[in-house]
Design brief:
The chain is an all-alpha fold. It has a domain of about 90 residues. About 80% of the residues lie in helices and about 0% in strands. It comes from Roseomonas indoligenes.
Length: about 180
């Protein structure tokens, strides 16, 4: 019985350690995919903004094509269209600033910055991008400094959790089991 108990405890330690190490090694790849989604979404927004500005410029004969000038000109003629264009420009700025923060940080800190940035999202666009990134992520093992560091941290966390779980399970023994064990 002791052999099976030791084997199960070793298996739990190994499974949790390796499992969390592999999961943590996904963080740099997920962050890169999230960053790419930020850039692509900002580009799509910019194309939409430019198309809407071009229609307004042609329809109203506007000479200025900067975002604030077109929004200002539309505000007097079509306030709802101006508000929609202004919201699109704000969303694009939000996505581009998130990308700039990620691009300006070290590879080791990017997953942490991406998570903090996605949670600080008043509009909800970045959380939707993060959710889509997680849904479409194909697990992969990248070998690099950031992936190795996160993998090591995951391994340590997995071993700690396994040992805590085993200690908790060991503390749940009944007095009868303890008496039998002492024989």
């Amino acid at each position: 019985m002791r052999l099976a108990g030791r084997w199960l405890s070793d298996f739990l330690r190994l499974a949790l350690g390796i499992g969390l190490a592999l999961a943590a090694m996904q963080l740099p790849a997920l962050t890169a995919a999230y960053d790419l989604a930020l850039v692509q979404s900002a580009g799509e927004l910019r194309r939409d903004i430019d198309a809407r500005k071009e229609v307004a410029r042609g329809f109203y004969g506007l000479s200025d094509t900067s975002d604030p000038d077109v929004i200002g000109a539309l505000r007097t003629r079509e306030p709802s269209n101006a508000q929609g264009l202004e919201n699109s420009v704000a969303r694009e700025d939000l996505l581009r600033s998130a990308h700039a923060r990620l691009a300006g940080s070290s590879a080791l800190l990017r997953p942490i910055i991406a998570l903090a940035d996605a949670t600080d999202d008043p509009i909800g666009n970045k959380r939707a991008l993060l959710r889509t990134t997680l849904e479409r992520h194909e697990p992969q093992v990248l070998l690099g400094t950031a992936a190795a560091t996160y993998g090591l941290a995951g391994l340590l966390m997995g071993l700690l959790l396994a040992n805590l779980l085993l200690a908790l399970l060991g503390g749940l023994r009944t007095p009868r089991q303890e008496a039998l064990r002492g024989r």
